[in-house]
Design brief:
It is a single chain. This protein has about 1350 residues and is α/β, with parallel strands linked by helices. It is built from 52 helices and 34 strands. The termini are far apart.
Length: about 1350
């Protein structure tokens, strides 16, 4: 340096005295306003004011006051004169130096005369400004100074121990920097910024803050007029928010750039952006292990020429590297690691004097190592911790070396910048806690990792500064060589949300184009945008800031915390969120020592909350605030806090952060709520910043499976230390997801899914399913499902789909509402169109042709062409229609041309009537073409009272329009030998239908008669295979009550009557009783024919209808009564029994005589009662005798038509009187013969009990033949066959032993017919069916044919014939 200014001090003092009177005014006039504003704060914490307890710095020393310690400064015209001043100070005598130290005072403030002509702020002049000559960087000071003068960017690459950190600010000052602005000197850590500021101040002989000051989080130690400002890179980054071109600085030194923290990378890119706009700004980049070429290329475009790279030598003494790997164990084993550290320290203690620096991953390991090294402490060695959260007082202990030997236990904070005095030895664990961001899981992973080679070299460089050094690495050399050369830059392992937010607010280049030294990965950028999108700070990925985003950009805080505060202000929960946000920003003050975990848990229990860990923070805060307010002394307060296992330092930091946050929101004008926030208000505000940290409980998870599923499918566990870990709810949120041995959710709280719907509305992924028209709603409805990062928030919610997809909603409205007729309106167009479509559909059903009505697509096209696109619901449709119908009323009217494919000729009311009159009752007909449906074909609606009056013969004809098809199908079912006569079948069926447009007689008999007449062929009814007839060719009957409610429906009249016959008869008789004329004709207690002429039918009036009733004499025991019935067959059966009663009364004497002459029946009764299978049929002699007399009366009386008057009844009595005795005696003899054969059969039956199935079959046969009162129920001509049936049983039993297998086969054939017959008989519920009765007789004849063929049968019989007969019965049924 030049030494031409020996008299500089005297001259400067003289110049200062000359301008003494102008100095106060000039100072006042030229001080920049920004120097008096409250300084900015880093993004993770609010801005702070200077500590009130710090003494106020004097602006200008007064003449009359006693000088203070510091030597007076001298006013300089130009800082380039500092070179001469440096030389002068360096060459002073030792006595003069002592005198200067003794008379030191605060430096004077003098103004400079910038070359620009504008007055700058008065800068304080350092008492000393000289380089430390013993440091390697001082040897190249001239080269560095020249590079600073001639370049805008300079790179100084120096190894550890070169002194660049402390000497570069001095070199900058010596070349005139710091005149128009501050020399900003950034450090990656607070502790480095404070310690370096103190060290440089000491070297300059100035008070801390006067010439060299610092600004860190929570503390601002810099006075107006200072030249050098030490700060964290986060502080400088925060200042860009208010000072975009960094005009407060004329020189910026970025130290430790090799660490490549997120802030450093952003600052380097930001500086490259603004350097062209600030040609006066100088940038010096320095580091120990810097990638110099990368930085040179980065700044070369703005420097205008190659960036100079100045390499400075490092340590002064050699360092020996010793490898002491931990063998045969896992390095993650903390106990083994601690033992290795203790062994290494023992080795170094014996190597010589000097302090030891041990590098460990984190604070927990430092505490454990301190315990492991306790034996050294007992020997007088001082064990000191060193990590970033140490207080200023604790930091000072590190940099004050005492007389005792020290072991400093440090995290990687001591790798760079910090120079711990007296360190000669280093123990390197090779591990560090590194924060990495998982782009897949969106969580921060703070895990212990192996350090890089560069970091290992940095650690080794911490020794060898005071003497020859030794570095012991607790891993082998091969492991070292395998490690990566450099640590990954933080920008490659962090979320870029805050950087993107800051860049957006500063209107910088897009992050993808921003000139980063090393551009972040695209997925990192995407992840940053995703976080901002989660916070609703940007419109979309890569989009612009939202209103919320602009608000967040004003807050120099972490984006999540800023979002919580902003939401809390809106939710009236700011007071609580300030506490919680500040708590999240610090390390948990609740300590849990390994040796006192249970005690700590018990002490912390009072702060727990059963629903939310965030509430636990509030409880802890309130408790500590109360203790502070009521403290007796600071010592006792600290003691009580420690008794409750609370960190005093962290609580103090918590209060500091809270204070800063509170000041910040106060500056923004936000109002802090006075009323306590509700649980919902508080947690909804917190949720705004934690939407990516929500979890949904897996109810089926076991103890091995993570119980919660989080965003994007990740699974995690609640933090075991949480107060709600074991009783967390279905939905929770967490302040952070941290992966250690497991992925844990820390600081959790129960939330409601409804909050997610509101707070995370911008993130919900909504999907809609099953859009459909709903007539009641009047619009298209869909089911909405919403998910938040894959978690189901709600599902199956009905929403108006027309707002989601108007085009599809319109299509569905037309297709489902109008075309598919799911629309209700009295509009004329709709009534007209529905009537047209109903008529055409009825034509289709009648003609059984589905091709008359056009396709739905054509009807859709009709409406689609006329209805505009804006019509999407019933309301919009009605509104549009009301307007358009004023000009074109029939715009939406459909015509037959629009609706019909072809003319449906032949479908007339004559051929397909709407009603059919049966028994005087008009019954509605409905036509339905729906093959396979129970309603397919034509359905007759039958009132219940008319059920028993249905004419089965008439209804076989169906309606005239269906006769042709039914006849054609009947002819088709005939055997080929008969069917060939009718070919072509359609023509013959058509001609038949035309000839019989008015049905008459039985359909089958009519076809048979015409076939015989035309073709001379004989067709039996059984030749028609009715099973081939489609169901729609049989009438379908729907029985309804008087209110029109359906009671039953079937195609079988007998089936309906079996179910509803009694109910129908009761209803009919109730109707008849209400007809006064009919009621007069009905009589009771009749003992003789004294009621005149008995009408064949009776007319019953009901609501304008004439019903037909059938009168009958009903046997009441001792007399008869005249009643009316709806069923003619039932009336006839009851009438016969009534006539028998009247005949008994009329022939009373003759019957008494007959009673006396039927004594032979007593023997028959006794014999019959002795047979087990006949016992129920022969209960007593009197009953048998009465049944025989009644049967004889019926045989004699009912040979002609039933009497209708008294004369005809008298003739009947004459016939009975004449034949009664003979018929009764004949019936008695027949009964005696039957019982005799039955006795023989029973006798043989008792001998085959071994053949269980045969025995059971014959026993059941006898039960079926001899039912109670069988004598009256079975006609005499059928009773005559009973003896043959008994003989057939005997023959069967005789042949059984010869061939039991043959008997079993034939018995199986009979069972195949008997089982369905009995099932059908039971379903008839007592309703008599002559077809079933005939089938029962044929079953008995089949038994004779199969087991005793020699007894012969009156008609041909076989299993095949009976099966065909049964199919005919079932088909008709």
């Amino acid at each position: 340096m030049a030494d031409n200014f020996k008299d500089l001090r005297a001259k400067l003092e003289k110049a200062a005295a000359a301008k003494k009177t102008e100095q106060p005014k000039a100072a006042e006039k030229n001080v920049k306003p920004t120097q008096h504003k409250k300084p900015n704060v880093p993004k993770t914490a609010p801005r702070t004011e200077k500590k009130t307890e710090q003494p106020e710095k004097k602006q200008t020393p007064q003449k009359n006051k006693v000088p203070v310690k510091k030597q007076p400064g001298t006013s300089l015209k130009d800082f380039s004169q500092l070179k001469a001043l440096r030389h002068q100070i360096g060459s002073s005598a030792e006595a003069e130096k002592k005198k200067e130290v003794k008379n030191k005072t605060q430096p004077k403030k003098t103004e400079t005369a910038p070359s620009s002509g504008k007055k700058s702020e008065v800068r304080n002049v350092p008492p000393k400004l000289q380089l430390e000559e013993q440091l390697p960087v001082s040897e190249r000071a001239d080269e560095i100074a020249e590079a600073i003068k001639n370049n805008q960017v300079v790179i100084v690459s120096g190894e550890t121990g070169s002194g660049k950190t402390t000497q570069l600010p001095k070199i900058a000052m010596m070349v005139g920097r710091g005149t128009k602005g501050l020399i900003g000197h950034t450090q990656p850590r607070r502790i480095a910024a404070t310690s370096i500021a103190k060290r440089i101040s000491e070297e300059m002989g100035a008070e801390l803050g006067s010439v060299v000051g610092y600004k860190i989080r929570f503390k601002d130690e810099i006075q107006p007029g200072a030249s050098v400002k030490l700060m964290t890179d986060g502080i400088l980054l925060a200042e860009t928010q208010h000072d975009r071109l960094l005009k407060a600085y004329d020189t910026i030194i970025i130290d430790e750039a090799h660490e490549r923290s997120l802030n450093i990378d952003f600052l380097l890119g930001y500086l490259r952006e603004i350097l062209p706009k600030r040609p006066d700004l100088k940038v010096i980049i320095t580091s120990a292990t810097i990638d110099s070429e990368r930085f040179a290329k980065h700044f070369e475009p703005v420097n205008g020429k190659p960036v100079p790279i100045i390499n400075v030598s490092g340590r002064l003494y050699p360092v020996q590297i010793r490898y002491r790997p931990i063998e045969d164990t896992d390095e993650s084993d903390d106990k083994t690691m601690m033992s290795a550290i203790a062994d290494a320290c023992s080795e170094l203690m014996s190597a010589g004097s000097g302090d030891i620096l041990v590098f460990l991953p984190g604070e927990r390991e430092i505490r454990e190592a301190s315990e492991a090294l306790s034996e050294f402490a007992q020997k007088g060695v001082e064990i000191l911790p060193l990590f970033s959260r140490l207080s200023i007082e604790e930091q000072d202990r590190i940099f004050r070396s005492g007389g005792r030997r020290r072991i400093v236990l440090s995290t990687n904070i001591a790798e760079t910048s910090l120079t711990v005095p007296g360190i000669r030895y280093v123990v390197d664990s090779g591990l560090a806690r590194v924060k990495r961001y998982s782009y897949r899981n969106k969580v921060e992973q703070l895990q212990v990792e192996a350090i890089s080679q560069a970091a290992a070299q940095q650690r080794a460089g911490r020794c060898g500064r005071v003497a020859n050094g030794i570095c012991i690495r607790l891993y082998d050399e091969d492991d070292f060589n395998r490690r990566p050369e450099f640590t990954d830059p933080e920008i490659l392992r962090s979320s870029l949300a805050t950087v993107i937010l800051r860049m957006k607010s500063l209107h910088l280049t897009d992050v993808r184009e921003f000139p980063f030294v090393e551009a972040p990965l695209p997925r990192a950028i995407s992840d940053g945008y995703d976080l901002l999108r989660e916070l609703n700070a940007v419109t979309e990925r890569g989009g612009e800031l939202t209103q919320i985003g602009w608000k967040l950009a004003r807050l120099p805080l972490d984006a999540r915390i800023a979002r919580m505060l902003q939401a809390a202000e809106e939710n009236q929960a700011l007071a609580e969120v300030l506490v919680i946000a500040s708590a999240i920003s610090i390390q948990d003050p609740r300590e849990r020592p390994l040796d006192a975990q249970e005690k700590a848990a018990e002490a912390h229990k009072k702060f727990g909350d059963d629903k939310s860990d965030f509430n636990s923070w509030l409880k802890l805060w309130n408790w500590t605030q109360n203790e502070i307010a009521n403290k007796e002394s600071n010592r006792l307060l600290d003691q009580k806090l420690r008794q409750n296992f609370l960190s005093v330092k962290r609580l103090r930091e918590w209060r500091d952060v809270y204070r800063q946050l509170k000041d910040l929101v106060a500056e923004l004008g936000w109002r802090v709520n006075t009323a306590p926030a509700t649980y919902e208000q508080l947690h909804k505000a917190l949720l705004t910043g934690l939407l990516g940290n929500v979890g949904f409980k897996n109810l089926d998870a076991d103890f091995r499976t993570p119980p919660y599923t989080g965003a994007r499918g990740i699974k995690f566990w609640p933090w075991p230390g949480s107060s709600i870990a074991k009783k967390s709810g279905k939905w929770i949120m967490a302040s952070e997801l941290m992966e250690t041995s497991r992925l844990y959710a820390r600081t959790i709280a129960n939330i409601e899914p409804e909050w997610l719907e509101k707070v995370g509305a911008h993130l919900l992924k909504k999907s809609w399913s099953d859009p459909h028209w709903e007539k009641k709603a009047g619009h298209v409805v869909a089911f909405e499902k919403a998910t938040l990062y894959g978690l189901p928030v709600y599902g199956q919610r009905r929403v108006d789909f027309s707002k989601k997809d108007p085009a599809l909603a319109r299509e569905l409205f037309i297709r489902e509402a109008l075309v598919q007729e799911d629309y209700e309106s009295r509009a004329p167009f709709w009534q007209h169109n529905m009537a047209m479509i109903r008529d055409i559909r009825e034509m289709e059903h009648k003609s059984r042709r589905p091709d008359v009505l056009v396709d739905d697509s054509l009807i859709y096209d009709f409406y689609d062409k006329r209805i505009p696109k804006e019509v999407i619901s019933q309301s919009t449709f009605d509104k549009w229609r009301a307007q358009v119908e004023q000009d074109s009323q029939k715009l939406l009217y459909l015509t037959k041309t629009d609706l019909m494919r072809h003319d449906a000729s032949g479908i007339t009311i004559e051929y397909f009537p709407k009603k059919l009159e049966i028994a005087g009752v008009p019954m509605a007909l409905n036509y339905n073409f729906d093959p396979g449906s129970v309603r397919d074909g034509v359905t007759l609606t039958v009132p219940l009272f008319a059920l028993n009056q249905l004419d089965a013969e008439r209804l076989e004809w169906l309606v005239p329009g269906m006769v042709k098809e039914k006849v054609q199908m009947l002819l088709k079912s005939l055997p080929q030998r008969l069917r060939r006569h009718f070919v072509p079948l359609p023509d013959w069926a058509k001609a038949f239908a035309q000839r019989h447009e008015v049905p008459k007689g039985d359909l089958f008999e009519t076809i048979i008669a015409e076939a015989k007449e035309q073709f001379r062929i004989d067709i039996r009814k059984s030749d028609f295979k009715l099973e081939m007839l489609p169901p729609h060719l049989s009438m379908n009957y729907k029985v309804v009550d008087e209110h029109g409610r359906q009671l039953d429906m079937s195609r079988s009249i007998p089936q309906l009557r079996s179910a509803l016959s009694a109910q129908a008869r009761e209803t009919f008789q109730n109707i008849a009783s209400k007809d006064s004329k009919v009621a007069e004709e009905l009589q009771e207690q009749i003992t003789e024919w004294n009621f005149g002429e008995l009408p064949e039918v009776m007319e019953i009036k009901r609501k304008g209808l004439s019903l037909i009733g059938h009168p009958a004499l009903v046997d009441k025991g001792e007399y008869c009564s005249l009643e009316v019935f709806d069923d003619p067959q039932q009336a006839q059966e009851l009438h016969k029994k009534g006539l028998v009663r009247l005949i008994r009364i009329a022939l009373k004497e003759q019957i008494k005589y007959l009673d006396k002459n039927l004594k032979s029946l007593q023997t028959t009764q006794i014999q019959g009662a002795s047979i087990v299978s006949l016992r129920k049929a022969f209960p007593s002699f009197e009953e048998i005798k009465a049944d025989v007399i009644d049967a004889a009366i019926e045989s004699a009386a009912f040979t002609e038509e039933l009497p209708m008057n008294k004369e005809q009844f008298g003739e009947m009595i004459g016939r009975v009187k004449e034949k009664l005795n003979l018929l009764a005696l004949e019936l008695g003899r027949l009964l005696s013969a039957i019982v005799a054969e039955a006795a023989l059969a029973q006798q043989k039956l008792n001998g085959i009990k071994a053949y269980e199935k045969v025995h059971e079959d014959i026993t059941q046969q006898l039960f079926d033949l001899f039912e109670p009162h069988f004598i009256r129920k079975v006609p005499m001509d059928r009773l005559k066959h009973y003896s043959r049936y008994m003989k057939a049983i005997q023959v069967r039993i005789e042949r059984l032993r010869n061939d039991p297998n043959r008997d079993a086969e034939r018995m199986e054939s009979i069972h195949e017919l008997t089982v369905p017959y009995k099932r059908e008989l039971a379903s008839r519920k007592g309703v008599y069916d002559p077809q079933l009765a005939e089938f029962a007789n044929m079953l008995q004849e089949l038994r004779v044919s199969l087991f005793a063929q020699e007894l012969r049968t009156p008609v041909p019989i076989s299993v095949k014939r009976l099966k065909k007969m049964w199919e005919s019965i079932v088909r008709k049924w």
